[in-house]
Structure formats: C-alpha cells, structure tokens
C-alpha cells in the first residue's frame, strides 16, 4: 500500500461555489518533496491539515475531523473508464491519492501510518456538493457519485509528520466493529435506516455522523420506522 501523491490546492474564484469568498481550493495538484501534515484545529476555524492546501469554506470543510481527504487511485481509474476522460491525482479534491488501499472499505477509527511519523484516523466519507459537481463539470454528478458509494475517506491527525509521494501506507490499528466508510456514507445519504449501526464506531465517528446516529435512535429506537426502509 502506497501513497502515490500528496495534493494541495490554491484559492480559485469560481461560479460553482457557495463559499462566502466565492473561492475554492478543490482543484488540487501533486506537490513535490516532503509535506507537513498536522491537526488544523476545530471546524470553523481550522482549515486543511496539509501544509499549503487551501480550504475556502470553513463552514463545511476542514477542521480536525476533516483534516485530510484520501481517495484511491483505483477508484479514479474506474471513474476514468466511466467518464471516458483522464483524471489526474487530486482531481477529486483529495489530499492523498493512494494505491492498494481500500479507502472506502476502511473502518471508522482505523489508523494509518504514512511515512515514518504521520498517523491518521478515519472519520467519515465525503459527501458530494455543488462545488464538486461544478469542478468536475459532469451532469448529475452529485447523484452519480452518491450512487457509487465509494466516497473516499476523511481523516483526523493523531500524530503529525512529513510525508511524500512513494511513502508506504500501513494500517496500524483496525477496530473490531464493521462500520466502514461506505456504511457511514450510505447512512448519511440514501440509507438513513442504517444510522443506528454507526454507533458501534463510537467517538471515532465524525461528530456530525455520531449526532445523526444518536438522534435517529432517540427518535425511532434501533430500528427504522415501519413506514420506510430508507428514512
């Protein structure tokens, strides 16, 4: 398992964003040499955990629980075939493009060591937004990306460090529950009936997902309401 590239973006003014500044850093490009990764601080004030990477809408992006976004090169390759166009590392706005890592199949709370020092922890999947759709320029992109249910993973920084392309990726901790990134993503999008299952991941979950799961259980118990299977 390998880190193929570390990607960072600069602020760019675009029409397809709801950011108050009218800018986005989603167009990320591979960075040469070592890159420092550290906890950026709480959501709303902290941006990206990757040095030199811009987060332009702190309301919805960045912060400790979304410090780093990883996406598998294998998934990019699958989208290349479906879209009939080349997709460079970083084009989905990911900070880390990986090879040989089942990113969307990772368990919430799973920890990765990248390079000699950096340790990251998986928190959630990436929910597609208007900015992502506008950046890709593909029709019905949010719906298509959601249907694929391979969203890539957000991670928090447990131990800071420097990384570079070619560094090994090692899973150093895998929780004993079955809450994967894909399951969390489905529960937060098209399968709200799955929300109670997320509680098995505990505090490793992104706080918004944990709150949604707890609210679901408080309202319906540990089963979906009888009138629906998708909430």
Description:
With 231 residues, the chain is an alpha+beta fold. 21% of the residues lie in helices and 23% in strands. The chain contains five helices and twelve strands. It has helices at 73-83, 130-136, 141-148, 181-188, 207-220; strands at residues 2-8, 12-13, 23-24, 29-30, 35-37, 68-72, 96-99, 111-114, 118-125, 153-159, 161-163, 169-173. An eight-stranded mixed beta sheet has the order 4-1-7-6-10-9-8-12. A two-stranded antiparallel ribbon has the order 2-3. A two-stranded antiparallel ribbon has the order 5-11. Strand 6 (68-72), helix 1 and strand 7 (96-99) form a beta-alpha-beta unit. The model is unreliable at 226-231 (pLDDT under 50).
Please provide the ordered H/E string of secondary-structure elements.
EEEEEEHEEEHHEEEHH
For the residues shown, what is the average pLDDT?
93
Q: How many whole angstroms does the radius of gyration measure? A: 17 Å
Strand content: 15-25%
Uncertain runs are 226-231
Helix-strand category = alpha+beta
- Alpha-carbon distance between the termini? 37 Å
Number of helices: 5
Could you tell me the number of beta strands? 12
Q: Classify the helix fraction into a percent range.
A: 10-25%
Widest sheet: strand ordering: 4-1-7-6-10-9-8-12
Name the shape in a single word: globular
Biggest sheet architecture: 8 strands, mixed
Concise account of the structure shown:
The chain is an alpha+beta fold.
Topology:
Layout: E1 2-8, E2 12-13, E3 23-24, E4 29-30, E5 35-37, E6 68-72, H1 73-83, E7 96-99, E8 111-114, E9 118-125, H2 130-136, H3 141-148, E10 153-159, E11 161-163, E12 169-173, H4 181-188, H5 207-220
Parallel strand pairs: 6-7
Antiparallel strand pairs: 1-4, 1-7, 2-3, 5-11, 6-10, 8-9, 8-12, 9-10
């Amino acid at each position: 398992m390998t880190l193929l590239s570390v990607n960072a973006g600069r602020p760019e003014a675009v029409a397809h964003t709801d950011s108050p500044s009218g800018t986005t850093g989603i167009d990320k490009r591979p960075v040469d040499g070592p890159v420092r990764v550290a906890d950026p601080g709480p959501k709303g004030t902290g941006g990206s955990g990757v040095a030199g990477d811009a987060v332009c809408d702190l309301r919805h992006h960045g912060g400790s629980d979304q410090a780093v976004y990883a996406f598998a090169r294998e998934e990019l390759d699958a989208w290349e075939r479906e879209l009939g166009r080349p997709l460079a590392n970083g084009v989905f706005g990911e900070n880390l493009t990986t090879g040989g890592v089942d990113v969307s199949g990772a368990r919430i709370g799973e920890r990765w060591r990248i390079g000699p020092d950096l340790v990251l922890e998986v928190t959630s999947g990436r929910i597609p937004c208007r900015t992502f759709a506008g950046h890709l320029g593909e029709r019905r992109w949010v719906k298509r990306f959601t249907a694929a249910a391979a969203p890539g993973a957000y991670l928090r920084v447990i131990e800071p460090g420097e990384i570079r392309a070619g560094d090994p990726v090692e899973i150093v901790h895998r929780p004993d529950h079955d809450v994967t990134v894909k399951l969390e993503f489905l529960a937060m999008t098209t399968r709200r009936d799955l929300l109670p299952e997320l509680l098995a991941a505990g505090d490793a979950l992104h706080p918004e997902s944990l709150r949604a799961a707890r609210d679901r259980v408080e309202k319906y118990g540990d089963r979906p309401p009888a009138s629906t299977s998708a909430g």
